[in-house]
């Protein structure tokens, strides 16, 4: 996927997230992310992409940023500090972040492997990364596959769904060991709130009887560094710094302008 297609797919995802199915996914992911991030400690945490979700809402680190590829289309009343940068060239020093959250970023990125390499670079040893993705081995994934034939897509068309085993392999290649993983959203691929509510019982049934077939998943991994073992709290280091109250632009663009 080239950068232009990636930009279009991100815009398409933004619209899809406002649909009943999108709100259903966001509600489950928000609940799961709140539970995962509340007890991850340190100084510096970053959410990359998907500003519709506040992935760090429950986290208590003093420095939290939202990194987006585009400036907000309209002024926001949110207290989150938004930085603007390309996802494959993060504006942070190496080994400066304790937590990075990637909600549906890799599926719509032009260079998903490069994005992950950048995440590995900026994470401290034993730092955490959390990835959200759509599950191709689900009713939604099958509906999306059928849409490639019929032309009626359920999810944004340009996204490339990445299975959880494949995601775990990508993380393992970068020495990031998976510590937790979850599936959710077991209702069929319905377009209306009425039918999603009628099938709400499938969330409990699916979690018990077919747990790996949820429409979305969340994976948490820890950066491992061979030959290094942390002694004492990992958050006793110096906090990372970023321009207070000002967007950070793409480093490559700054170099060209200079």
Largest sheet: 7 strands, mixed
Broad shape: globular
User: How many distinct helices?
Assistant: 8
Q: What is the CATH superfamily classification?
A: Vaccinia Virus protein VP39
Helix content: 25-40%
Write the layout of secondary structure elements.
Elements: H1 3-16, H2 20-37, E1 44-48, E2 63-68, E3 81-84, E4 97-103, H3 112-122, E5 123-134, H4 139-150, H5 164-173, E6 176-184, H6 193-198, H7 201-209, E7 216-223, H8 251-257
Parallel strand pairs: 1-2, 1-4, 2-3, 4-5
Antiparallel strand pairs: 5-7, 6-7
Write a concise synopsis of the structure shown.
The chain has about 260 residues and is an alpha/beta fold.
Would you write up a description of this structure?
This protein is of the alpha/beta class and 258 residues long. It has one domain (3-257): Rossmann fold (3-Layer(aba) Sandwich), CATH 3.40.50.150. 34% of the residues lie in helices and 20% in strands. Strands 3-2-1-4-5-7-6 form a 7-stranded mixed β-sheet, with helices on both faces. Strand 4 (97-103), helix 3 (112-122) and strand 5 (123-134) form a beta-alpha-beta unit. The longest helix has 18 residues, at 20-37.
Can you tag this structure with a few keywords?
alpha/beta, single chain, 7 strands, globular, Rossmann fold
């Amino acid at each position: 996927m080239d950068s232009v297609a990636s930009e279009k797919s991100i815009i398409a995802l933004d619209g899809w997230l406002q649909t009943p199915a999108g709100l259903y996914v966001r509600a489950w992911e928000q609940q799961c992310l709140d539970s995962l991030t509340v007890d991850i400690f340190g100084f510096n945490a970053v959410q990359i992409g998907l500003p519709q979700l506040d992935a760090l809402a429950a986290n208590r680190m003093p420095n939290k940023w939202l990194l987006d590829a585009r400036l907000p289309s309209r002024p926001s009343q949110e207290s989150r500090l938004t930085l603007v940068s390309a996802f494959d060239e993060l504006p942070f020093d190496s080994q400066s972040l304790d937590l990075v959250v990637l909600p549906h970023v890799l599926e719509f990125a032009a260079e998903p492997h490069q994005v992950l390499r950048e995440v590995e670079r900026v994470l401290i040893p034993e730092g955490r990364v959390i990835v959200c993705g759509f599950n191709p081995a689900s009713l939604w994934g099958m509906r999306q596959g059928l849409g490639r034939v019929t032309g009626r897509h359920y999810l944004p068309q340009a996204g490339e769904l990445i299975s959880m085993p494949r995601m775990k392999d990508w993380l393992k290649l970068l020495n990031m060991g998976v510590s937790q993983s979850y599936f959710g959203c077991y209702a069929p691929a319905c377009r209306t709130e009425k039918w999603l509510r009628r099938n709400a019982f499938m969330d409990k049934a699916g979690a018990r009887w077919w747990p790996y077939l949820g429409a979305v998943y969340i994976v948490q991994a820890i950066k491992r560094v061979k030959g290094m073992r942390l002694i004492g709290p990992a958050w006793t280091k110096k906090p990372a710094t970023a321009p207070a109250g000002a967007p950070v632009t793409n480093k490559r663009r700054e170099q060209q302008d200079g």
